[in-house]
Design goal:
Layout (H helix, E strand, L loop, with lengths): L5 E2 L4 E2 L2 E3 L2 E3 L2 E2 L8 E13 L2 E12 L2 H10 L4 H5 L2 H9 L4 E7 L3 E2 H18 L5 H14 L3 E2 L4 E6 L4 E7 L10 E4 L1 H12 L6 H15 L2
Antiparallel strand pairs: 1-2, 3-4, 5-6, 6-7, 7-8, 8-11, 9-10, 11-12, 12-13
């Protein structure tokens, strides 16, 4: 499936393409209760020697039920109001619906470094919110251990599924195809929510993905 629009019941959404990576309009990640729709996508990069370098492209997918849940509070708000509201993104992170993120590599990265960056961000968020206990520490180490032997060349993808049960599903693919079974399951709601917050939360690593999410959800909620 490419960037063509898909019907998600009472609304239709289109896919996106960024840096040669296709984010399909819908995604069927492992353990999700039903197909998820593309909420938004954006690049992640840094300034390297005065030049902006893109490292990954990320997409965020939501269960269709997210639309009605979010519309109760956010319908009628402008894109600017949504994109600047921490509460809007918190509602996406903690809402009673499945979510997923697709993180596709633009440049090569070994799994150990990928996990170090992810866990560092998650740990900072957990500690800031007073949620970093022995359980969270143990699951962060489990995440790092899983990624240690993995190589992530350009075009490879890490899928995270954030289940309403509080389970975080981790799936690695050589391309952007979604494997049927997850590689790792972590039972820790705090870590699950911190990981998604590291992408689209208050200091999320992809402002472009946050803006895309706010813009697309604005259009969907106000149809």
């Amino acid at each position: 499936m490419g960037t063509e629009a898909s019907d998600c019941g009472s609304f239709a959404v289109a896919g996106m393409e960024l840096e040669g990576t296709v984010f399909p309009s819908t995604l069927n990640p492992p353990r999700s209760r039903k197909p998820l729709f593309l909420g938004g996508a954006g690049i992640r990069g840094y300034d390297v020697n005065g030049k902006f370098k893109i490292f990954t492209v990320s997409g965020v997918y939501l269960e269709p039920e997210a639309v009605n849940f979010l519309a109760k509070r956010w319908r009628g708000k402008s894109v600017e109001e949504l994109s600047s509201s921490n509460q809007f993104f918190d509602d996406i992170i903690t809402g009673p619906f499945d979510r997923a993120s697709q993180i596709t590599l633009v440049v090569p990265l070994d799994g150990k470094e990928f996990a170090r960056l992810v866990v560092k961000s998650c740990t900072e968020i957990l500690k800031k919110n007073g949620l970093y206990s022995q359980k969270e520490e143990k699951e962060c180490e489990e995440l790092k251990k899983f990624f240690e032997p993995i190589n992530l060349p350009p075009g490879s993808t890490v899928f995270f599924t954030y289940c309403t049960s509080g389970h975080l599903m981790v799936t690695v693919s050589d391309d952007t195809s979604v494997p049927e079974v997850e590689n790792l399951a972590i039972d820790c709601r705090n870590l699950m929510e911190a990981l998604l917050a590291s992408i689209i939360g208050e200091n999320g690593v992809s402002p472009a993905a946050k803006l895309s999410l706010a813009s697309r959800m604005h259009d969907i909620m106000n149809r």
